[in-house]
């Protein structure tokens, strides 16, 4: 069939990949693939491996959580002609796996890699230098994902995000920002903002529109302005919410704002331009090819 690179993060989720790696590799070899395995050693290693070896294979398979997938795609974006990407979700939340309709069982997901339909998906450009797959966000609760220790995620799974999120409610801060896009223009104090291309964020499917399309060249944007009173959580989430779709958007603020890209810290910025790169990466979905 050709050459395949399998990038696996052994620390993702509850380290389940350690018990399934041989089964997955065996499945690929029996299908005729010449498999090279790269076990990530440190943060950003998936990105480095994808960039270094991705140009010499026909198929690259990523096994890990959303962060590992994001790193892998970041490396592929550096290539002139990236290979087809397969994804075996093995993280705590696996938001983007829901968008791709991939099964939670890792061996079943590996079978989808071999038999699933291929789809070109949009990728987000963050400031022209970084990329993200499904979410760029700031403000309330967004720091939970990258501040929660991996060990806690491994033990508690998705509950880890909920517990850490509850602890952060008292520290909600508003950022005075100017937001500009073709569809929306405004200035105010915002406590939360996210630019997404996913049916699920943080494991919650109700946060984004149900009719999200991964290859339409548009992001789904949600902005929440600071409430006049913050006595109750309901005041915060129902006060002034702006939702719209856009291909590009700019955020400007006087003070640095911490951003999260696909669950990882994306930097502190005062001026950031986010752009949708339409149909940039070819990935395998959970929809089985029609014979």
Description:
- The protein has 291 residues and is α+β, with helices and mostly antiparallel strands.
- It has two domains: 130 residues, Probable inorganic polyphosphate/atp-NAD kinase, domain 1 (Rossmann fold, 3-Layer(aba) Sandwich), CATH 3.40.50.10330; 148 residues, Tumour Suppressor Smad4.
- Helix content is 26%, strand content 40%.
- The protein has nine helices and 13 strands.
- Strands 5, 6, 7, 8, 9, 10, 11, 12 and 13 form a nine-stranded antiparallel beta sheet that branches. It has a four-stranded parallel beta sheet with strand order 2-1-3-4, sandwiched between helices.
- It is elongated and about 60 Å long.
- About 8% of the residues have low confidence.
What's the arrangement of secondary structure elements?
Elements: E1 2-8, H1 17-30, E2 33-39, H2 45-53, E3 59-64, H3 66-76, E4 84-89, H4 95-100, H5 106-115, E5 116-126, E6 130-132, E7 135-139, H6 144-147, H7 150-156, H8 159-168, E8 175-181, E9 185-196, E10 219-225, H9 233-238, E11 240-246, E12 248-261, E13 264-288
Helix pairs in contact: 1-5, 2-3
The CATH architecture classification of the largest domain is Sandwich
How much is the radius of gyration in Å? 19 Å
Q: Quick one: biggest sheet? A: 9 strands, antiparallel
Proportion of beta-strand residues: 35-45%
Number of strands: 13
């Amino acid at each position: 069939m050709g050459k395949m690179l399998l990038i696996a993060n052994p620390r993702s989720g509850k380290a389940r990949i350690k018990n399934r790696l041989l089964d997955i590799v065996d499945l690929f070899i029996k299908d005729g693939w010449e498999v090279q395995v790269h076990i990530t050693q440190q943060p950003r290693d998936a990105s480095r491996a994808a960039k270094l070896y991705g140009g010499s294979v026909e198929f690259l398979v990523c096994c890990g959580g959303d962060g590992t997938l994001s790193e892998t795609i970041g490396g592929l974006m550096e290539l002139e002609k990236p290979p087809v990407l397969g994804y075996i979700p093995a993280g705590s939340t696996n938001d983007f796996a829901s968008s791709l309709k991939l099964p939670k069982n890792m061996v079943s997901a590996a079978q989808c890699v071999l038999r699933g339909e291929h789809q070109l998906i949009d990728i987000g450009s963050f400031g022209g230098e970084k990329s993200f797959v499904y979410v760029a966000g700031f403000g309330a609760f967004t720091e939970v994902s990258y501040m929660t220790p991996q060990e806690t995620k491994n033990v508690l799974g998705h509950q880890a995000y909920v517990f850490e999120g509850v602890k952060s409610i008292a520290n909600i801060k508003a950022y005075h920002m100017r937001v500009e896009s073709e569809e929306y223009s405004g200035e105010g104090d915002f406590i939360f903002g996210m630019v997404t291309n996913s049916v699920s964020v943080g494991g919650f499917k109700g946060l984004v529109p149900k009719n999200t399309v991964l290859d339409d060249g548009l992001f789904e944007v949600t902005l929440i302005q600071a409430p006049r009173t913050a006595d109750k959580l309901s005041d915060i989430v129902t006060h002034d919410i702006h939702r719209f779709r856009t291909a590009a958007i700019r955020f400007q603020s006087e003070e640095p704002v911490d951003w999260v890209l696909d669950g990882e810290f994306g930097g502190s910025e005062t001026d950031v331009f986010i752009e949708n790169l339409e149909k940039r990466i070819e990935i395998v979905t959970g929809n089985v090819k029609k014979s």
